User: Fold these one by one.
Assistant:
Number 1:
Amino acid sequence: GDPAAGRAKAAACKTCHGLDGVARIPIAPHIAGESEVYLETQLKAFRSGKRTHEIMSVIAKDLSDADISDLAAWYASIAFTVQMPE
Amino acid sequence: GDPAAGRAKAAACKTCHGLDGVARIPIAPHIAGESEVYLETQLKAFRSGKRTHEIMSVIAKDLSDADISDLAAWYASIAFTVQMPE
């Protein structure tokens, strides 16, 4: 997918997930740096109904394959580093 | 939950998710720094069957509420920072 196109399409996602993939609400997952295959699998699962959520099922319903591929590319393009507690 | 207890119990998770929550395989999500409520919700969904996955459904089946709470506390305790592409 095209990350730049995905960044624009992420306007629909950023309220809960953030444009940077850092969730703004605790019930939403952080998706920064998730792999494209994981993100695409989950969005397609929400679209097909294999996975359900009161918000994501509605949002995913109208996503095209290109939308899904671009959104996955955008969020996968965000780098992250972790620090484990001592 | 107790992050230290969760860290020990994460022996069952680290093969795919990493002890640090950075996924080792592309089909598994990064779970570093996810919120406790999100992690607990997903583990309970896998345990109850509300959410299904060939591996997670099996692993979650035998998790107690305490296991779920401790694992969520461990992975939620991992800090992370993100860098958006320019």
Number 2:
Amino acid sequence: MVKTDTSGLTQLGGAAALPASPEEAVLERVPHTHEGERYVARFTAPEFTSLCPMTGQPDFGHLMIDYIPNKWLVESKSLKLFLGSFRNHGAFHEDCSVYIGKRLTEFLDPVWLRIGAYWYPRGGIPIDVFWASGPEPKDVWIPDQGVPPYRGRG
Amino acid sequence: MVKTDTSGLTQLGGAAALPASPEEAVLERVPHTHEGERYVARFTAPEFTSLCPMTGQPDFGHLMIDYIPNKWLVESKSLKLFLGSFRNHGAFHEDCSVYIGKRLTEFLDPVWLRIGAYWYPRGGIPIDVFWASGPEPKDVWIPDQGVPPYRGRG
Amino acid sequence: MVKTDTSGLTQLGGAAALPASPEEAVLERVPHTHEGERYVARFTAPEFTSLCPMTGQPDFGHLMIDYIPNKWLVESKSLKLFLGSFRNHGAFHEDCSVYIGKRLTEFLDPVWLRIGAYWYPRGGIPIDVFWASGPEPKDVWIPDQGVPPYRGRG
Amino acid sequence: MVKTDTSGLTQLGGAAALPASPEEAVLERVPHTHEGERYVARFTAPEFTSLCPMTGQPDFGHLMIDYIPNKWLVESKSLKLFLGSFRNHGAFHEDCSVYIGKRLTEFLDPVWLRIGAYWYPRGGIPIDVFWASGPEPKDVWIPDQGVPPYRGRG
Amino acid sequence: MVKTDTSGLTQLGGAAALPASPEEAVLERVPHTHEGERYVARFTAPEFTSLCPMTGQPDFGHLMIDYIPNKWLVESKSLKLFLGSFRNHGAFHEDCSVYIGKRLTEFLDPVWLRIGAYWYPRGGIPIDVFWASGPEPKDVWIPDQGVPPYRGRG
Amino acid sequence: MVKTDTSGLTQLGGAAALPASPEEAVLERVPHTHEGERYVARFTAPEFTSLCPMTGQPDFGHLMIDYIPNKWLVESKSLKLFLGSFRNHGAFHEDCSVYIGKRLTEFLDPVWLRIGAYWYPRGGIPIDVFWASGPEPKDVWIPDQGVPPYRGRG
Amino acid sequence: MVKTDTSGLTQLGGAAALPASPEEAVLERVPHTHEGERYVARFTAPEFTSLCPMTGQPDFGHLMIDYIPNKWLVESKSLKLFLGSFRNHGAFHEDCSVYIGKRLTEFLDPVWLRIGAYWYPRGGIPIDVFWASGPEPKDVWIPDQGVPPYRGRG
Amino acid sequence: MVKTDTSGLTQLGGAAALPASPEEAVLERVPHTHEGERYVARFTAPEFTSLCPMTGQPDFGHLMIDYIPNKWLVESKSLKLFLGSFRNHGAFHEDCSVYIGKRLTEFLDPVWLRIGAYWYPRGGIPIDVFWASGPEPKDVWIPDQGVPPYRGRG
Amino acid sequence: MVKTDTSGLTQLGGAAALPASPEEAVLERVPHTHEGERYVARFTAPEFTSLCPMTGQPDFGHLMIDYIPNKWLVESKSLKLFLGSFRNHGAFHEDCSVYIGKRLTEFLDPVWLRIGAYWYPRGGIPIDVFWASGPEPKDVWIPDQGVPPYRGRG
Amino acid sequence: MVKTDTSGLTQLGGAAALPASPEEAVLERVPHTHEGERYVARFTAPEFTSLCPMTGQPDFGHLMIDYIPNKWLVESKSLKLFLGSFRNHGAFHEDCSVYIGKRLTEFLDPVWLRIGAYWYPRGGIPIDVFWASGPEPKDVWIPDQGVPPYRGRG
Ligand SMILES: [Ca+2]
Ligand SMILES: [Ca+2]
Ligand SMILES: [Ca+2]
Ligand SMILES: [Ca+2]
Ligand SMILES: [Ca+2]
Ligand SMILES: [Ca+2]
Ligand SMILES: [Ca+2]
Ligand SMILES: [Ca+2]
Ligand SMILES: [Ca+2]
Ligand SMILES: [Ca+2]
Ligand SMILES: [Ca+2]
Ligand SMILES: [Ca+2]
Ligand SMILES: [Ca+2]
Ligand SMILES: [Ca+2]
Ligand SMILES: [Ca+2]
Ligand SMILES: [Ca+2]
């Protein structure tokens, strides 16, 4: 196995405080040692929370991010801090979901990236957002995310 | 098998309109042909709805009613109409659940009766209400209701 | 292992037509070779059907029968024919469930017997019936039947 | 993140009564700040109810709406009120499901929209309706709705 | 919403006896008010039963019917009676499943129709039959039926 | 149904900001109109989050609170704000779970109260805390909370 | 419904002993009365067992067979005996699965046939085999087999 | 940890052929190094098969055995061979289940032992047998076996 | 909330290597700030592995530990290291499960402690071990562990 | 059935120690007796563990490997030893998953191979890796792996 070059990382190891906002969060990346391989890495983040921009009340979401790396892999601690940076930040559901997808796409320049955002219900009608950076590549294995539909009670 | 005496029923057969309120709903009962037998009849009503008394918005619930009959069985069409009578009626969750339990207990004079009311979430925190007419009789088989806990998303 | 005495059976082996009614169905039994052992035999019958005595329309139920044998074991083919005899017979849900429990109890004279009858929904509100021949014996292992609650859709 | 323009909305914030019928319900929309992005927003509404046009009895459904926005996003409170407007309104299952799909399509002019309507059983045989505004776009990620089939009991 | 024309129906409303055989069952249909829309209506019938033509013993099945209407919608009460007409009728599993699919296709002249028949096990090896009137139209949304595989015990 | 007296409430209706800490959160209560009835109210809060007191990183938990009211019912909006007050507050898992149970018990003086706190995994080994104000009353119906065990992957 | 011609069958009806080996097992077939219809018949056999050719210890498998009939239907009792013939016969997992698929294909000359063999774990790592007689026909409805992945414990 | 004394074992290590019948199977045991501890060991055997004594056809069962050891632990390879010895042996379901329980109880002289035998369906109505050597000890933790009920299809 | 005294801990914070054996592992504890409260803390460890003492091959288990603290809480990082110390250590399933329970009981001197050890299958028949330090206290809430039974395939 | 040639194998039969590293592990293969058949063999390995290269702490994964054999089948005991060789070896999740896929592809020269690696969560956000040796062949049946998404708690 080849060695991952972690020399450029600044947040790994020490204790890192949550960034105050998504804009202040610093994403980090490491060189992709398997460049040219077309495969998917999936991150599942059931611990996402932000604030409702209308009421200031907490919102919760279950996020799943799939991407096909190109020259970079996302460094997972910086991804965690980036997602944590929404904690005290107001964001509409559709907008927040698309923003995360676009920011990661811009930073990682992947072959392809998508995000499924499954928001906890508000007013009895939860919203899910399914965003991708482009059409699904036909030559790569991309399993369904498989989150069961919202059910209410009973 | 003995014959159930349905001679006193008024709502069976024809088309019956939803009562305008729980108070106007007419519960009906038939003589219990197995008087003395101690067993449980369970009704599961996943189609309950009422109005929030503060906001007028619809509320939804999944109700389960268990009872040990004494001299009467509830006539199921009248039970359906009774539950339907909350449709355009304001009721707090705790109060509504207990009211249904008490009204049925009063009307049927059962050996024992309980209601589990599993309300759909409002504000992210659903409430369940578990009311019984008295302690669970130790000599009767009363299975758990088995409704899975509310899960949110993911 | 001891040998089960099947000499008194009349329905086993040949092709037996469905009895025309529960009253005409002939239950059969074999001597219990483990008399004195206190254990439970459970039969699960997800293929039960009868007719609604009010409308003549078919009703369906999922039945589970638990019993602690005394001197007799029920012969399972005769049990199947007995349950099949309701096919073209009108019966109320509560009454039918209790009748099956009582008829088996009378015929087998078991230490204890119970029936859980889980009826398919009519009018959106299914009924379950939980009947036992007496209080659950405290010295015998009797697992829950574990049927999940009716859920509607979603 | 860009700012959503909510200046044209009339129902947000204050308490809004349920519209008396679907025709009287006022759908609202906000400009889509990510115009050009092709992604799916999904709304899951397990709290839908209407009346049977033949009998006046309540019907219940679990609805799921997927759409690819074009210039507009649906304002979710108005969507909720629109769905709530069927509460005391008679509608056949097929017709009601298709009507909701068409009305939203007409109002939002989306790239594509579909509705899955999973109705609670009547007479033992529930109906589902799967309507879409056109063929599924091949270049957009559209997960299955994943509602399990109706199961009856057992 | 447009009005469904039910003027030609003969079985709706009154109490209708089960037809004695599939041949005697009368299917009914109503004009399709959304002609030209390409969508799927799904009926799920977990309450199907027939007789084994070899032994006369009852068989049970879970049926799911999907169709894309053309000029007609099936009237659901007549569908229920048609399925009920197999109750005392002998039919092989493969043949019965295909027959239902073909009879409905012939009567409704739909754009497309399919039936999934999931039979209860006989001899430890249940059979499922998946029949369609033709290849799946590529421009219509047709969700999987999603019935879990037979599992035996444990 | 009797009327709940909400005259003493201060947080209902208007927009209320999240309290800065649990100590600053103001719980509110309404008189219990069914005093003397012994039943359980259950709140399920899958949207709980706090901070790790050692690292400052977010923690997440799924909380379930069961109580038997005495003279007071908890006002649910104040409960929500109380739980939300942990959002930017450091707390050990065991301590936090017990604190919530004790604070509610002190404030509501219920017949009995319990809290099940199911924390998201840290280091591969999640902790659950099951606290009750005293032994389970034998004469009241208290269903299991039914949260499935943590499973890891696969 | 047309009549299935069973005149050529030799094993149906009487009691048939398990064949001593797959080679000795006699598969039987009946003429396909719906020749030309392209549909799938699925057999699910959770009761398969053979012997490990290295150690002689029993192996167990859950088999699912899908086929599109051409001129013949497999007679199900002969299929059962064929599968039972592996009971005291040594066979490697991959080889056994492919052999069953090929033997059935050769005998039935179907339009298409596949077998999914889900073997019970040995050494902690179960093997599944998915064999088909050729590419999946694009014009026929072939649902997924839907067996959940092996999970170990927890 | 103390050392288990395996000196008396004869079947461990080498390849052992399946015994020809339960009577010929040799159970083995090792001294219990935690004598006096009251705890439960559970074996789950989803790979059990025997022959029907009436027809010679294979039967299948899922067995679960719980016991509280006294002076001996069962050696697991000999248990496996004992269960495998039923492979070509005729046994009635009730009798076979009780026999296994009794034979193990006699051999191990445990504080307590029970067996749950969940047989695969025959004739649509599977039987389960729940046998114990005596009443459940009240001072030992004995979790439910948790096998879901037989469900048929759908 | 009171402050947990972590002054005596030696392994927290820095990187700690896995102990070479259970005997070398150092468990740590912190004073229990809620002494006198009778509640349960549950740890779920699906990542347990040890070696088979006969073959040296890896074994895997899913462990659940419940305890009622007395004067001490276990420090969770030391618990993790203790469980990790079995990684390259030979241990029989029964012995290993009981050893962990006893070692924790000795070290924490809890009111009560139990361990459920659900081992991955070997030879098709997994073993579970359920050990407790004494009878279940009747005055404390101790939910079932709820691990589903081993199922094999299908 | 043809005979598998196992003459070249060196690890089968005797007790084989875990290789000290993946590099030292010796994969073995047997000639493929069904060369030319295009089918999938799937191995499911829920017992995978390695070490984190940054902290030395254990990592756990659930691996699923699908391949279409060409001239060789992997010998399953050598596969097990290969996977076991990561036990005391440091490896990043992405790198480790891809390495296993590539090493097997190189050794077996299959028509196609893929690996799904479902890692246990670290820091609340588990990673999955989906690697394939090339695009999915369109003419072979390759079922989804069907692992449910990570869920956290509740
Ligand atoms: Ca896809
Ligand atoms: Ca529902
Ligand atoms: Ca109970
Ligand atoms: Ca979640
Ligand atoms: Ca019980
Ligand atoms: Ca699709
Ligand atoms: Ca099984
Ligand atoms: Ca309890
Ligand atoms: Ca696992
Ligand atoms: Ca398909
Ligand atoms: Ca118990
Ligand atoms: Ca069913
Ligand atoms: Ca308990
Ligand atoms: Ca199985
Ligand atoms: Ca696929
Ligand atoms: Ca949750």
Number 3:
Amino acid sequence: MEYFDTRDYDLAGRIGKLRTKHGIIETPYLFPVIDPIRQQPPLETIRSLGFNGIITNAYLFYRRNKGLPKKIHDSLKWNNTIMTDSGGYQVLIYGDVEVDNKTIVEYEKEIGTDIAVILDIPTGTKMSWEEARQALFETNKRAVEALPYIMDSDQLWVFPVQGSPYKDLLLISTSTAWRLPYHINAFGSPTVLLEKYEYDKILDLVGFARLHLPPHKPLHVFGVGHPMIIPFLVALGGDLFDSASYILYARDNRYMTETGTKKLEELHYLPCNCPVCSKYTVKELLEMPRKKRVEYLALHNLYMLRKEINNVKQAIKEGRLWEYLEYKSKSHPTLRKAFEIVKRYTRYLEKYNPETKGTTHALLLIDKDSHHNPRLIRIKRKVYGMLSNKKPENILLIPAYKKPYNQQIEYIEAKRRYPEYTILFYHPYLGVFPPQLANTYPYFQHEVGIIDEEVITKASTEILQVINKLRPRKIIIIQPVEEKYYLLTHKIIKWLRTKTTYTLDVLSFQT
Amino acid sequence: MEYFDTRDYDLAGRIGKLRTKHGIIETPYLFPVIDPIRQQPPLETIRSLGFNGIITNAYLFYRRNKGLPKKIHDSLKWNNTIMTDSGGYQVLIYGDVEVDNKTIVEYEKEIGTDIAVILDIPTGTKMSWEEARQALFETNKRAVEALPYIMDSDQLWVFPVQGSPYKDLLLISTSTAWRLPYHINAFGSPTVLLEKYEYDKILDLVGFARLHLPPHKPLHVFGVGHPMIIPFLVALGGDLFDSASYILYARDNRYMTETGTKKLEELHYLPCNCPVCSKYTVKELLEMPRKKRVEYLALHNLYMLRKEINNVKQAIKEGRLWEYLEYKSKSHPTLRKAFEIVKRYTRYLEKYNPETKGTTHALLLIDKDSHHNPRLIRIKRKVYGMLSNKKPENILLIPAYKKPYNQQIEYIEAKRRYPEYTILFYHPYLGVFPPQLANTYPYFQHEVGIIDEEVITKASTEILQVINKLRPRKIIIIQPVEEKYYLLTHKIIKWLRTKTTYTLDVLSFQT
């Protein structure tokens, strides 16, 4: 695919380049929604923040120009990428029956937008299954109807995936998406879920859609513009977003933070570094004329969105998107629930994890949630597969407590004294691994947080499973000198003693 | 105490006003360490970021001026607060035996510093218990020796708490602190722990010291200047900090983030909003002349520190410092361990929680860690005390699943049908509570994250304990209609059935 190149991957997230007639958009990207009539803050300011693509409403542009096909880049004085939404929602509200799909599609072609959406059926309100089914089939019909108009276009065209929140309908829509030659698939979140901050439900639907959509095409998620949810959507495969939240929030004195939204009046201190918050205090912002305050708050909100996108991209580059989500999930109950959804998609996400990264940043093993890190799971599965191919008869288990583990005195001693044994390390997060891996990623590059009961329960279960699969005849296990490993070893020994298919010796080395 | 007023409290953290000769410092506060000879970035810039107090080294100032007592505010051209460290460390390094405690104390008086430290024994390197004991007694001797010089001073004087990392010695030092009329107590972190990022050990020592120090006097923690650790230190009662890290890191191309430190070369995107990071890219920063880059990185680091302090203060104002620590603890294994230390001090921290807050922000009940929230514990203890005073004979238990809980159909029905029963709600985080509280804080103002096995285990244990204490004769429990409450109710019923001191009825209401 020439118009969309992806380079860096983590979970189902990726950094990509989307080529448009007016320049390249680096994804993940959020298009600020622009009002073609009364835009605030000015486009020049938005560009100076680093946003090189905007989205506006083709229908409003059409009405404003009474259907005259003015070139949209000239009209808005914006020489970078412009995406236009079709305005299905507005059509519904204003009941303008004369503007149909063909009209809007042709108009979007004529005004020269870079990324265009066909006229879909708005999913803004809660639909019954039957209504959603009808919206889906009508949208599919329109998508086919638009094909003759758009086949010769040099624009990128967007197919709106329909059927949400009904997964059976989503499945029909996603299979249509495979057959139609649109460039971008778009998911419209039911706004009712967004308003209620039911991020877990949105994520479940987006994850489901992504799973069934062509992975090489970008996925746009409509109308999601809060720093809280963006990293989770990216992790499940969202590439493009758009939102008017920066200005809508600002008009209502709402101030985005990393972990939520505050009313400006609630704040005593500005928990932000952006040029606005570095220059003004809460009091000064509250006392300035409304128009100015709205502009500054909108700017702050855009800075927050920009930072969140940067954070996510940096996390993808480092291969630490999972760790980033673990962190974010603890900022609010709704994100903690959202994280459980991401966990549920772990197996699917894992597939997208590349085998190696240029940079191998230490794996952060924080607490029991870290056991679910897809990167760790994938590596362990490989190692366990390798081990069970070998099926060593005699194994000697050593607690891995001090890096590099193959420098531990227990290992050096054991190798000398028990040459007929295959030595394996065990670890509360890394499970079982051979000494040969002790200097490779992540067996050397990791940092360990807490080793509490839950971590030990999970780890010991896994370690026992691996050992059982090896069906050894003799086992020697070394007692740890490190206090924090007592419980884990104790649990393993207790369980090993319940079986009689092997001999078991427990040793302590003096160090 | 006139020189230090505290107004807002959360955990053992507080927002206070420290009055100095050159203005008021709002605590928690971090004093940037200033080099009197080659300061970068310029003091004017540091002030423009909102820092109104700096710290510098009295000994270096003494050497530079060959012992001449120049007025330090004039010399540095800084009209706000100046704190001077005594330079004990430098004395050790340069072996300058002629500068003794009396000399430095008199000099600090003469140059007119606002906050002054006596010449303590550096704890920079790892000391044996005997060495630490000697340092402690020598420092105590000097603190007494300095008294005649400082009693008539209008400056604030700092008593360095010694003995770390030995708690028995710390205890001796903290009891001296109660007897001596110093204004501020200061804790010197063993740098060896800081270098190894062993934040849990530092926190344990600071928590221990704070517990035994006069609570009405501010506590300064020397040499800790990373956004990661500051919120945890504030939660355990740290008021003042100082650090040169912003510039030391910058000289080494190290870039502070909310969750750690990066080498600038490692970054692909700048995960920050500050005026520096909003203006430049990684590439531009790397390509500019070194001196300029160091200045910009130092500025960025100062912006990060400023933001962290603001975040902490806003969290204290909202009464959400615990939630903030829960969040931060998931950013790195070392902070996850640090959080366990804070948990250990919960009972002590709880004391500092004021009964009511002007603003009652929703309690964020995220996962099992939230059960340890001192605010929640304190409120529940009060409610349970109240309940066990009443000892109702017949109790009727209703799952609280939809706010406001006293509008649930089960409650309305039960009240009508069973007037002879005392109705109590049960909840996976809020435990047991009477309907009368359903509209009060936090029984109305809270948000619930996940309800997993661990949350249920913890909650059911607590709920059973409360019920057992009431010694009822009859119990009715209502089955929930909400799926997510099945497991909790099931567990409670199972346990209730093991006892025979009461009759038990299980009911389901159709809604």
Number 4:
Amino acid sequence: MSPPETEFITLYHSSSDDSESTSLGTSLTPQRIGFVGFGTIASAIATGLATQQSVPISYLAVSRRSEKRSSALQKSFPDLVSIHDDNQQVVDTADIIFLCVLPEQTSSVLQKLKFDAHRHTLVSLVSTSTIEDLCRDAQLPPERVFKMICLPAVARCNGICLLLTPTQKDPPILTELCEALGGCVQARDAQQMSALMVTTCLMGSFYGVLRNNREFLVRHGLDRDQASFLVGRLYDSMVQDAVQVQKDPNGFDQLIAEQTPGGLNDQGLRNLEALGALDAYDQVQTAILSRILGESDGSLPFESR
Amino acid sequence: MSPPETEFITLYHSSSDDSESTSLGTSLTPQRIGFVGFGTIASAIATGLATQQSVPISYLAVSRRSEKRSSALQKSFPDLVSIHDDNQQVVDTADIIFLCVLPEQTSSVLQKLKFDAHRHTLVSLVSTSTIEDLCRDAQLPPERVFKMICLPAVARCNGICLLLTPTQKDPPILTELCEALGGCVQARDAQQMSALMVTTCLMGSFYGVLRNNREFLVRHGLDRDQASFLVGRLYDSMVQDAVQVQKDPNGFDQLIAEQTPGGLNDQGLRNLEALGALDAYDQVQTAILSRILGESDGSLPFESR
């Protein structure tokens, strides 16, 4: 399929920070989006973008590789998806380009591509890339280049996108695309971005706590399937209360304050603190950050920061 | 309002364990439900029952006290709710009776009431009550008496009900009412019930971890509201993955196994374990159980069980 016209796009990216005109524009302008490299996370983003209903998408250009993933996406969304063997075709036919290649390929892939600084927005999903290197290799100005990290759940529009936006807060279209994928948190510099990445690496720890809570019940005579069901349902119920206050900077504190003073819940938290479990979380997060920053291999011991 | 006929009900409770006939019966038989005592948790259960769509409810009889809560319920569901000054009226006009009084009132309240062993089901929400005491005080046979514990989220049909069912698994109607309120986990004896209660007392601990994770981001330069939003969204996303496998006895283990070996998530969990945080959870849960069983005041230290 041939890509639709692009004239409205440029108008968009040159618009002011006026959020009213931005959202108006979004409702009018179908987006043309390309993927250079098409691995797991690219496939999740593309699936989410094709599925979401908030931002109109007219065209999704994807690299053939990985062939299995690109074919599956085209099969699911035949009117939207176009597969290209040549990365330059992806770039030429789209306006927002998601870069999803391996860290060691990033520089050489970008250096071979020709971008239009008036038209293209480059979004790198390569965790090790820096905005400076991306600008240099793609020959794009900093206001056209972003870094993004997201969870696989973006495929169900229930992920969360971390967006490094050093030059502008709420970049038009991109913020709205991230919101449509499940939510957007913006970092203003690389240090903030690294800290945000730490939070997204707490999956193993969380599932470990769920397993621990389940096994306590099993040790006390419950069937493992019943125990698993209760733990899952309980955390689901608790998280829904947390989600209701997540936009309040002190929301979690309020949920803690709602526990009866001296009651079982309150005492449980105080015991957990006294036993050093929350200090352990601090050390775990500090170790992850250190590894992300390349300062260590993440092994203990660590002083909390 | 006058209560509807009750003839189908008895038929129900004398039916066999055949789940097909049970669900068929449920779809035909509107339930008449009463509340003796009407505090926070009674109000939550009544609100959930009036809201849910799975089991037809024809009538909700509630104690006037607490007046504010009973009036609010009647205002919300005027066609369903009848307020009574006399607890015996509640019992006389309903078939399933939720007992929601203070622990020290339980015996004297029950001893004053007259139940019909062929018609009534008694469900005690009093955490300290035993099935034996309830049977003696209400003059009801054990197969008519249950204990239940539930979270306030039952009001939104998103709670979880713990049901002590020593004499029969899946008691008809009651199981379905609990399912309609968000989910049902059954204990076969008082010890299992106590262990299940422990899990529902992990709210303080969980919100403490959320606060900890948020504060890590704040220390690294994120705004507290952004940090809160990310933590809330992340746990929501993780819990949804957990909920998808919660009926699998090894589902949480699979989620852990999905983390890249040696990756940031995997290392985070191993660090958390090495720092004793999961042992701390064991001790916290053991302390809560000890307090529930009246063996201690729940203070540390505790050997994990």
